[in-house]
Amino acid sequence: KAGVTQTPRYLIKTRGQQVTLSCSPISGHRSVSWYQQTPGQGLQFLFEYFSETQRNKGNFPGRFSGRQFSNSRSEMNVSTLELGDSALYLCASSLAGGGAYTGELFFGEGSRLTVL
Amino acid sequence: DQQVKQNSPSLSVQEGRISILNCDYTNSMFDYFLWYKKYPAEGPTFLISISSIKDKNEDGRFTVFLNKSAKHLSLHIVPSQPGDSAVYFCAAGFMNRDDKIIFGKGTRLHILP
Q1: Which of A73, A68, A75, A79 is nearest to A19 (CA)?
Q2: Helix or strand or coil: residue A71?
Q3: In chain B, where do the E strands start and end?
Q4: String of b and e for B36-69 (b: at least 16 CB within 10 Å)?
Q5: Is B46's Cβ below 8 Å from some Cβ in A?
């Protein structure tokens, strides 16, 4: 069974630009969560989508947005990029909701964004 | 507000010895805890979990201990192997509530030959 697929794997942008990252969850998984990983902050929760609805949201500015499509694929967008947005963006899918009782989140390999 | 804290950014352990990774949490409502392992250039992978009704869960070389009164959990790896060198993330969530899973900042474990 295919894992979580994230594209692109690497990208470089300049300040002020915007970026869209894509995530295809494991087949049958309806929940997609996005996390930002930086060296000093670990894994910080961005948002979670379930059945095309944003169900949970982290403490990130409105420049960070996302959506989920009917096939559970998800995209996240960052507008007006800042240097501090340079990070590894990880997508994770799970069978049901965000509840930890589902056992685990399955992570993709991430999209590494560098903002110059 | 860091609800899940891993206060040791890194840890070095001799191969064959026990590795103990620690994690503290502040929200007493958390009732499910997980450990994830991450290699460079890969996404985190699930390692082991524990619910708040237990104080210990074991899976092969990995054991997680939970001390609810101290809001503390630890991951023990015995014996430590070279392939265990990775970043370990502690995470916490809720059994019966669809809410986000909160991760700590991670601890980088180095297994020394």
Answers
A1: A79
A2: coil
A3: 4-5, 10-14, 19-25, 32-38, 45-51, 56-59, 62-67, 72-77, 86-93, 102-103, 107-112
A4: bbbeeeebbebbbbbebeeeeeeeeebbbbbeee
A5: yes
For chain A positions 10-69, those within 8 Å of chain B (CB to CB) are 33, 35, 40-45, 48, 50, 55-56, 58
The DSSP string of B11-31 is EEEETTS-EEEEEEE--TT--
Measured between CB atoms, does A108 come within 8 Å of chain B? yes
Query: CA-nearest residue of chain B to A59?
Result: B1
pLDDT of residue A98: 53
Residue % of chain A over a pLDDT of 70: 92
**CB nearest B93 (choices: A44, A55, A99):** A99
Q: What is the pLDDT of residues B23-65, one digit of tens each?
A: 999 999 999 999 999 998 889 999 999 999 999 999 999 999 9
CA–CA min distance A93, chain B (Å): 12
A67, A23, A88, B32 alpha-carbon torsion, rounded to 10°:
80
Torsion, CA B8, CA A91, CA B32, CA A50, rounded to 10: 160
pLDDT at A102 over 70: no
CA B29 to chain A, closest CA, distance in angstroms equals 13
Q: In which residue are the tokens 């916490």 written?
A: B92
Q: Do residues B47 and B109 lie in contact, with contact meaning Cβ atoms separated by under 8 Å?
A: no
- Fill in the DSSP letter of residue B100: P
Task: Give SS3 for B79.
Answer: coil
